[in-house]
Hints:
Elements: E1 3-4, E2 6-14, H1 20-26, E3 30-39, E4 42-49, E5 54-71, E6 78-82, E7 86-90, E8 96-101, E9 107-112, E10 118-122, E11 134-139, E12 145-151, E13 161-163, E14 169-173, E15 176-180, E16 186-190, E17 196-198, E18 202-204, E19 210-212, E20 217-219
Antiparallel strand pairs: 1-3, 2-5, 3-4, 5-6, 6-7, 7-8, 9-10, 10-11, 11-12, 13-14, 14-15, 15-16, 17-18, 19-20
Amino acid sequence: MKILNPIVALALGVSLIFPIGTAAQSMSNEQTTPITVLEDGVPKKLKMRGADRFEIKWNYKAGQEYFSEVVDKATGTMYLLSADGVLHALNPSGQVKWHSDLGIDWADHLKLGKDGLLYAQNHNLYDFKDGEPALILAVDKAGKERWTMELPHMYPYGSTFDVSADGIMFMLTDRGVTAIDQEARLIWANDQAVTYKYDYYLSHDVVRLTWIESIQTLLV
């Protein structure tokens, strides 16, 4: 089942006035939300479980399908990357801070690196076999593009990407799990955890890379 929906950011408030027993029982209650999604091509309204304990504070629609979003925990700012390559920044009240057109089509993933930069990826999921490169764009929190990097051997589709506080990027390439600096120089590669295949699109068996800064360790 593939679900694609317009950019919709929801802020939910939780009421804690219910005793434990009542709250647990209310989780079976459902309420249709104003949000419409496409489920196998059929428009359907989202349903919220435990709806009597939540309320929608605000919502935001940009008229485009989107692939990825991140929230800056320090400021509460939400960043949304739409399919047309436009990056949207919203404050915690749902008001638009800025838009930035990154000039890429079918941007598929957004990451807030531990170095404070936003990283947008443009995938080569269907073109990897033909040697088409993937792109990584680094953007600051004001929406200004810092640099763009072409990586012909990267597998960028999905959430297999992270960035350390020093700006070291961890990703999947045809060499395996790989660390690359911001000059596109290879630091190390490890192929022990990765297998991949290419039918009509690229697939691999690693679904997430997470860099733990406090212990300088990459979880695969």
